[in-house]
Amino acid sequence: MPDRTPRDASFDAAWRVARTVDGWLTEAQARDLHRAASAVAPGRVVEIGSHLGRSTIVLASTGAAVTAIDPFPDDWRYGRPDTEQRFRDHLAAAGVEGNVDVRVATSRDVRTAWDDGVRLVYVDGKHDMWSCLDDLRWSAFLQPGDTVLVHDAFSSLGVTLALLRDQTATRRHRYVGRTGSLARFEVATPSVGDRLRVVGELPWFARNLLVKVLLRLRLRPAAALLGHRDTADPY
């Protein structure tokens, strides 16, 4: 069936730039970010985990005020000593640096001193369960009906465990759906059905874990049988 989603010229322009930046954000996911940020612009968007700026460019291109939080460590799998400078260079090349408040710090450090309003939260920080749960606390600054977007949901063990724990321990995030691994939550009390829909994503999560194992065993043809034809992990 053909894609009947209306074209958004402003997104298309932003994506032409953003897609040249290395990162793990698909065009469909970027479109979701752009749509969510456009709905609250010029309000405040908090992005947790910026890396080289692919998602930051998409968010900031809407005219939203983006607070980009990332300690830019060089001691993790994708970190380099020049990551922060490359990130800033990409923002400047995209012409959006004026819309981005860069915080070189941890999510918790920024949050504990935060005293401003927020309209949208995008979580793509550290992928262990406790860090992700801590990042989700940013939703305390949102209003009912506002959006929390979580990347690598149902494709990372730590993030998936965090979402399952959040759904059983809190009454603040209602699961709306996902685009690939990008999950969308609304600040609202979830029903039993909403919680069960999160559990219903577990077969897809199991498939993604199997794909990761196959990729590490260099069994890409087997991963392709599961519908995964990328060299990167599912995202």
Automatic annotation (TrEMBL):
The keyword Transferase applies. Coiled coil: none annotated. GO terms for biological process: methylation. GO terms for molecular function: methyltransferase activity. Keywords: Methyltransferase, Transferase. InterPro entries: SAM-dependent_MTases_sf. SUPFAM superfamilies: S-adenosyl-L-methionine-dependent methyltransferases. The keyword Membrane does not apply. This is Class I SAM-dependent methyltransferase. It comes from Nocardioides potassii.
